Amino acid sequence: MGNRDLESRGSSKNRGAPPPPPPHSNYYTSSSPYYTESLDNQWTSWLVPMIVVANVAMFIVIMIVNDCPKNHNSSLEGKCVARFLGRLSFQPLKENPLFGPSSSTLEKLGALEWKKVVNENQAWRLVSCIWLHAGVIHLLANMLSLVFIGIRLEQQFGFARVGVIYMLSGIGGSILSTLFIKSNISVGASGALFGLLGAMLSELLTNWTIYANKAAALITLLIIILINLAVGILPHVDNFAHIGGFFTGFLLGFVLLVRPQFKWQERRHLPLEARGKSKYTLFQYVFWVLSMVLLVAGFTVGLVMLLKGENGNDHCSWCHYLSCVPTSRWHCNNQ
Fold first, then answer.
1. Engineering a disulfide at 173: which of 29, 95, 192, 245 sits with its beta carbon 3.0 to 4.6 angstroms away?
2. Catalytic annotation present for 242
3. Which of 89, 169, 186, 190 is labelled catalytic?
4. What pLDDT was estimated at residue 263?
5. Cα separation values, 307 from 25, 114, 310, Å
6. How far is residue 264's CA from residue 244's CA, in Å, rounded to a whole number?
C-alpha cells in the first residue's frame, strides 16, 4: 500500500483525524437566557450516528470485496492477518499496517485518484472517497472524532446544517487534494471532519457576543486545529484534504451557524420598539456575504482547474510542503 493516501497517502500513518474539542456548552454564559433556551431546545442527534453506521457498513463491504484469502498470494507477500475472519481478514501488515484492504480494492470501490477523475471523467470519486477507509485504525480514529465533534454540533444546530457542512467540506477537501496530489490515491472522512472543526471556529467568532470565557475557548480550539494540521506534514497523510475541508467548513460556519447577538436575546421578549438592538451584528452580515462569495469562487475555480487537468503545484511551487516536509528520516512523493 505504498501509493495509497488515507487522506491518507500510503499506509503507514493514520490520517491525523482531529481529536474531540471541548464541549460547546462550556462557552455559554450561565446567566444568559440564550443558554437556558438552547438547552431546552436542543436537537436530537441522529444524522451523526447514521453516518457512523454507514461508514462501518461500508468498511465491511470493502473487506468482503477485498477477500484477502482468495485474492492475495501469501507465498509471495506474506499471510493475511486474522485469517479466522475469512473474507474479512486483513492484508499483510507490511502491505497495510492499518488492518485493512489492498490499494487495488480501494481504487476499485471509489478511492480518489487524479487520473480517474480527470482522464476518465469519474468526478463521483470526489464524494465516494469520503466513505472509504484504509483500515480499522483509520476508521476508528475518524468515527470517534466524528462522534465527539459532530453530535454536539448536531444537537446545537440540527442535522440539515451539520450534514451540509460535513458533505461540502469533504468535497472541498477532495478537490484540493486532487489538484495537488497526482501519484497516489486517497480515502477517508478527515476532510469532512476538519470541516466541522473549521465550522466550530467560525461559529465561535461570528457568535462571539453569546459566549463567556471567549479567549480560553478560542485558544483551546486553535491549539486542537494546529496540532492536527501539523500531523498532516508527516508522510502518507493527505494534508491537502485536511486544509481544503477546514477552510470549506470555516466559511460555511459563517453562513450556516449564525445566531442572534446576545443583547437581542436579552430583549427579545420586550415590545418591538423597546428592543433597540438589531438581531444580527454588522460583522455577521459582512462575513456572511464574504463567505458566500469565497465559497462559490473557490468551488468554481477548483472544479474548473481540476476538470482542465491542471496541476496545482504549477501555480504554487512551495505548496507541497503543506502536506509533507522531507527530512533525513523520510522522503515525500506527493506530487
1. 245
2. yes
3. 190
4. 63
5. 43, 10, 8
6. 35
